[in-house]
Design a protein that fits this description.
alpha+beta, 4 strands, 5 helices, four-stranded antiparallel β-sheet, elongated, Alpha-Beta Plaits, Arc Repressor Mutant, subunit A, WH_DNA-bd_sf
Length: 153
């Protein structure tokens, strides 16, 4: 169920989605309010689970993770034990940045960030040694055109 937000809440969240490092005073200035109401609203949005965490976003290429693969997985297995093993394997692999279960012809799509194709192959070999998959297609991203975690408030 969607939580009701007023215009000030939205302005605060838009600011926080861009950068959480400014002080409460700076955020209050940007959204046209004072410090105390902004702090109280942020605290309430944290308590309500709207703001779940604050993280540092790292530059993957600067750190040597130059290859991003989108991995399409089809499986012929759909029982609970296979799914549990598959989800465990994904959760234990830091290379997997995102994993989604899909409707349609493809069962899962993964976003995998690694140093290079050789590192992807090592990831792939480890994954298929742990869980049986019917078909895997890996697509190398040639260029990241847009990447954001911001919601369109």
């Amino acid at each position: 169920m969607a939580t009701r937000l007023d215009e000030l809440d939205r302005k605060i969240l838009l600011q926080l989605q861009q950068d959480t490092t400014p002080s409460i005073e700076e955020i209050a200035k940007k959204v046209g309010s004072s410090k105390t109401p902004v702090w109280n609203r942020i605290r309430k949005m944290r308590d309500a689970g709207i703001i779940t965490r604050e993280v540092a976003i790292l530059d993957a290429e600067t750190l040597g993770f130059e290859a991003c693969f989108f991995v399409l997985i089809r499986t012929s297995e759909h029982d609970a034990s296979w799914q549990a093993a598959f989800l465990k394997a994904l959760r234990e692999r830091p290379e997997v940045q995102e994993a989604h279960r899909l409707a349609g012809d493809i069962d899962y799509i993964l976003k995998v960030r690694v140093q290079n194709a050789r590192a992807y192959d090592a990831f792939y070999q480890a994954l298929i040694s742990e869980v049986k998959v019917h078909n895997v297609t890996a697509l190398l991203s040639m260029e990241e055109i847009k990447s954001t975690n911001a919601l369109p408030l």
